[in-house]
Design brief:
about 350 residues; alpha/beta; Rossmann fold; 2 domains; six-stranded parallel sheet; 17 helices; globular
Length: about 350
């Protein structure tokens, strides 16, 4: 009997959980695959973590590294030092990391230094700005990985420009797999509107969590000055953003002027996005979901990791410019075609098949 392929999957943040759900579902169908789930604990708040496991039927992690918060260096170092012992114990054939978070960087570096083959899921997106911590994470994970699974064809081209051509595969986006399945389920869950006392198609939805915005007092103030002028705005407040708003003494004003809610589960989030007039965000995942839903998206970043959605006209770059944000809320109404850049919803199936064929 052939040996089972043991794969350690590293997750640590909300987008990771969403992307891993289709992979676990697919892996169940393949007796050759043995997945070991390692949760780094990067997102340790219940609404940012465990609720996604419950909703998406992801199995309980085999290991929780409990890295918690801290600076980029502190968090990455904790994950690396604790992951090393897991790899020694489990002796995996492959370590798989996903996305652009610190957990992906730490997982890829640790596996590479221990001479364990590594796969980067969601390889290749680039924002072309190394001041962004996520960009550094992407680049390092890509250049230390043995298998690179790309969400778009442009991601493949980006890797080619950097000299990475071996074992590069366009599989499509695992997040798109999850979206296609769960949007149907989310439509049946309308309790969130009653809970929040809002009506569908009668509000704007906003999120904000990127370090570029939250760690810069001036940028954060500019963005919230714009938010104050938007009627019927629902702002989902990330725990990290809340902490910084309080540090900057902005919290009292923001909490009085804006309808703020805590992070919600995946299904509720999909429904809130689907029924929003427009979405205002700095989240790469939320931007893609807005694109798939056909909801106009106002981007609070200087650049975008997925320029395809800007090219199609459904995402407009406003950065922290108050006038641009308010103008986009009033007048940005795209009507163009949304091309299918993110695959056919079968990324998980393709990734599992490629891994089976290569071990």
């Amino acid at each position: 009997m052939k040996k089972r392929i043991k794969i350690i999957i590293i997750v640590g943040a909300r987008p990771n959980f969403i992307k891993m759900a289709p992979l676990f579902e697919e892996a169940k169908k393949h007796k050759k695959i043995n997945l070991v789930l390692v949760h780094t604990g990067q997102h340790y708040d219940f609404e940012m973590s465990r609720v996604f496991f419950d909703e998406l039927n992801i199995p309980k992690p085999n290991y929780n590294l409990e890295a918690g918060s801290g600076s980029h260096a502190q968090q990455t170092a904790k994950i690396m030092s604790r992951l090393e012992g897991v790899i020694i114990k489990e002796k995996p054939d492959l370590v798989a990391v996903v996305g652009d978070v610190n957990s992906a960087l730490a997982g890829a570096l640790t596996a590479c230094k221990m001479h364990v083959k590594t796969a980067h899921i969601e390889a290749g997106p680039r924002i072309w700005d190394k001041r962004m911590p996520e960009e550094i994470n992407r680049i390092v994970a890509d250049h230390t990985s043995d298998f690179l699974f790309c969400p778009t064809k442009l991601s493949v081209e980006n890797l080619k420009k950097e000299g990475i051509v071996k074992n590069v595969f366009f599989t499509g986006d695992l997040m798109y797999d999850a979206f296609l399945k769960n949007i149907k389920i989310a439509r049946k869950k309308a309790k969130i509107f009653k809970k929040l006392k809002i009506s569908p198609k009668n509000y704007y939805l906003a999120t904000l969590h990127r370090a570029e915005n939250t760690d810069d007092r001036r940028r954060l103030k500019n963005i919230f000055d714009a938010f104050f002028e938007i009627k019927n705005l629902v702002f989902i407040c990330h725990p990290r953003t809340e902490k910084l708003l309080k540090n900057y003494n902005f919290w009292n004003k923001v909490s009085k002027k804006i309808k703020m809610i805590s992070p919600v589960g995946y299904l509720d989030m999909l429904l809130l996005q689907k029924e929003a007039k427009k979405i205002i965000t700095d989240s790469g995942g939320v931007q893609r979901e807005a694109f798939w839903l056909g909801v106009p998206c106002i981007n609070l970043m200087k650049n975008v990791a997925y320029p395809e959605i800007v090219k199609d006209g459904w995402n407009v770059l406003a950065s922290d410019n108050k006038k641009k944000i308010i103008k986009a809320v009033k007048y940005f109404n795209p009507q163009g075609i949304r091309h299918n850049y993110f695959g056919d919803g079968k990324a998980a199936r393709k990734i599992v098949k490629i891994l089976e064929n290569n071990f």
